[in-house]
């Protein structure tokens, strides 16, 4: 599945939210090559998307919403997405345009989902309306042209129940990988130069000072090994006092565990707070 467009209303904290992942025009001098549907050079889309923002601005919620939509498509169970409706008494809605392959042809699908508000906080076939439309992508098509053809179809509302409508979508070939707030005991890098190139392009977007990314076998899993060692042998308090005095105080007061994960998180948060104070962020918010 390739997500091209997503609209959300009354799910999580999203109100009239809209994000599009297409390229109306070809990007010159892009780090990434061939950002188009294979065999369809005019059908352009963004292969890498980095969602950035402050805490509590909806980054994680966006990922959870996409995951919920995928689960709804795969399992056709409305209970997998209805708990995320913000105000159950109001109507909720989402629409997603995406590309899927069927019988060796690419199709652009549009899934419109309406959840009617109710006082009983329950959803069923009676108050959930889902319509699925699709158009075949022609060789010279771009996303905009296919989207216009879908617009013409959306006037035809299906009377089928949402389960029948969801069956129009081919089974997804992959799910949604969601990160977890934990440290791995071992890290590995795919033995593929394309992986390194992808990592290099991503880091360059975040920091133009990055020149290249190289594989160094001698330091493989060095971070994971260091964290494992520090779990078995915690940092001595005198050493912690010398290099992390603020965290040392919290450890002595019993407010922070002397574990590598907790120390790292506490140090990062402390640095962010110092930066926020120094840059007068509170005045900017006002």
Can you characterise this structure?
The chain has helices at residues 59-75, 143-153, 162-166, 193-206, 222-232, 237-243, 245-252, 260-278, 281-285, and strands spanning 2-9, 17-20, 36-37, 40-44, 92-102, 105-115, 128-136. It is of the alpha+beta class. β3 (36-37) and β4 form a beta hairpin. α6 (237-243) crosses α7. The chain is globular.
The termini sit apart by 42 Å
- What is Rg? 24 Å
What characteristic shape results from the CA principal axes? Answer: globular
Listing every helix as H and every strand as E from the N terminus to the C terminus, the arrangement reads: EEEEHEEEHHHHHHHH
Report on the biggest sheet. Answer: 5 strands, antiparallel
What structural category arises from helix and sheet content? Answer: alpha+beta
Enumerate the spans where pLDDT stays under 50 for 5 or more consecutive residues: none
Relative strand content: 15-25%
**Count of DSSP strands:** 7
Average pLDDT metric: 85
Strands of the largest sheet, in order across it?
2-1-5-6-7
Helix fraction by DSSP (H/I, runs of at least 4): 25-40%
Q: With helices defined by DSSP (H or I, 4 residues minimum), what is the helix count?
A: 9
